[in-house]
Amino acid sequence: MATLQFCSECNNILAPKADPVRRIMVQHCQSCQNEEPAKNITVFRHDLLIDNREQAGVTAFLGDDPTLPHAEITCPECGRDDAVFFQDQSKRKETRMILFYVCTDRTCGKVFFDPALKTAGNLEV
Predict the structure, then answer these.
(1) Residues near 16 by Cβ (< 8 Å), separated by ≥ 6?
(2) 120 vs 67, which has greater pLDDT?
(3) 3-state SS assignment for residue 72
């Protein structure tokens, strides 16, 4: 964790600055132009949790839901030609419009994607 550092000459706050000649980071005082070597070279750290796979979530009993739209698409598991569908609900900017299909057969309940979707490598059911 970066902490604030103060100038040993005038007690003003030091700002990080790159020294291209010595190729190091220094703390620079904007009042008296004093420079001190940086104790911590981390200025800012932004960790991101990235998960690029769209996930269907809980799909139990979705085939019985009367509010979901139906589509005539063949289930790859049982061959039935009826499925309900819904869109991925993750709230990310880079999310594509992925439709999840759930077979309406109670014994099957398979979750699948449109077979015309070519890039299903990063999808997770």
Answers:
(1) 25, 26, 27, 28, 38, 43
(2) 67
(3) coil
Measure the CA–CA gap between 63 and 42, rounded to whole angstroms. Answer: 52
Structure tokens at 66: 């009367």
Site of tokens 């709230």 = 91
CB 98 within 8 A of CB 123: yes
Length of the chain as a residue count: 125
Edge-to-edge strand list for the sheet holding 83-87: 70-71, 83-87, 99-103, 111-113
The phi and psi torsions of 64 (rounded to 5 degrees) equal -90, -5
Q: Please, are residues 85 and 98 in contact by the beta-carbon 8 Å criterion?
A: no
Has this prediction a pTM greater than 0.70?
no
How many Å from the N-terminal Cα to the C-terminal Cα in the chain? 38
pLDDT tens-place string over residues 16-41: 888 888 888 889 999 999 988 888 77
